[in-house]
Amino acid sequence: MVSETSTSKATILVVEDEQVIASAVAQRLTAEGWRVEVARDGLTAVDAAARIQPDAIVLDVMLPGIDGLEVTRRIQAERPVPILMLTARDDETDMLIGLGIGADDYMTKPFSMRELVARLKALLRRVERTQQATVAAPSEPPLMMGDLVIDKAQRRVHRAGVEAHLTPTEFELLVMLSSSPKTVLTREQLLAEVWDWADASGTRTVDSHIKALRRKLGSDMIRTVHGVGYAFEPPTHAMVEPA
Ligand code: CA
Q1: Strand-pair partners of 225
Q2: How far, in Å, from the CA of 104 to the mean position of ligand 1?
Q3: What's the gap in Å between 88 CA and the centre of ligand 1?
Q4: What spacing in Å lies between the alpha carbon of 91 and ligand 1's midpoint?
Q5: CA of 105 to the centre of ligand 1 (A)
Q6: How far is the CA of 125 from the centre of ligand 1 (A)?
Q7: pLDDT at 23 > cutoff 50
Q8: Which of 7, 119, 178, 199 is deepest in the core (most CB within 10 A)?
Q9: How many angstroms is it from 63 CA to the middle of ligand 1?
Q10: Under 8 Å between Cβ of 228 and 186
Q11: Ligand 1 mean position, distance from CA 25 (Å)
Q12: More confident: 235 or 232
């Protein structure tokens, strides 16, 4: 249960077809004490994720066979795994963020190994915190706001009676926003609280997750305050009981 222990025993799947980058990343992550497996194409990555159940995945977008987007879809359909996505250019990152796919963080090549390690550590800490929170609050009653139900103990969310399948990061972001209704939280605040990541360069990651939450739960609940951040507007309509 000591956080250092489980973080250092983490298993990381590295998906990268460029041999030089794959080796360098694998070497660096192994030096951190993590178990590392490398996959060189998308289908191998999906198989490896099912087999080794990694704690996090470093995933290159441009891959032979199926690309990083499809890999993300297939892996997340089985089990929510935190994904740090590697892109070739900033505009590629923008495009992916626009799509609101389920990656937790993005880095543009070339990146520093130090930053990669720092971000992975932040990802793993978040997952761990999430697991501890679940264990700590097994009997906390679900939070009900209009037709929205957030069950922290079960980590499940329903809107109008329909379950929304959120990634761990999306869930944490929703919990954070909904804990301060009608209050504007800046992207930097959200980044620090949810991502455990103090660098403001990640604010676009916040935007992509807001987009995903709106897609999954409806666009009326989270208000954009331009140039500042986001505010949670609790749904006012109670759930309509089926006739
Ligand atoms: Ca590639």
Answers
A1: 229
A2: 19
A3: 8
A4: 16
A5: 17
A6: 27
A7: yes
A8: 119
A9: 5
A10: yes
A11: 13
A12: 232
Q: Which residue has the tokens 């998308």?
A: 42
Q: What's the CA-to-centroid distance between 111 and ligand 1, angstroms?
A: 14
Ligand 1 centre distance from Cα of residue 42 (Å): 10
Higher pLDDT, 228 or 98: 228
CA dist., res. 117 & res. 73, Å (int): 24
Omega before 110 within 30 of 0, i.e. cis: yes
| pLDDT tens digits along 66-77 | 999 999 989 988
137 CA distance to ligand 1 middle (Å): 42
Percent of the chain with pLDDT strictly greater than 90: 51
**Residue 93: C-alpha distances to residues 122, 164, 209 (Å):** 20, 25, 13
Q: Where residue 3 falls among pLDDT bands split at 50, 70, 90?
A: very low
At 72, give phi and psi (nearest 5°).
-60, -50
Per-residue buried b or exposed e for 48-76, using 16+ beta carbons within 10 Å of the residue's own CB: bbeeeebbbbbbbbebeeeebbbbbebbb
pLDDT category of residue 126 using cuts at 50, 70 and 90: confident
For residues 51-61, average pLDDT:
95
Query: Burial level of 1, CB count in 10 A (0-12/13-18/19+)?
Result: exposed
Burial of 4 (0-12, 13-18, 19+ CB in 10 A): exposed
The Å distance, Cα 229 to ligand 1 centre, comes to 33
With residue 138 as reference, give the H or E element that holds it: none
Confidence of residue 198 (pLDDT cuts 50, 70, 90): low
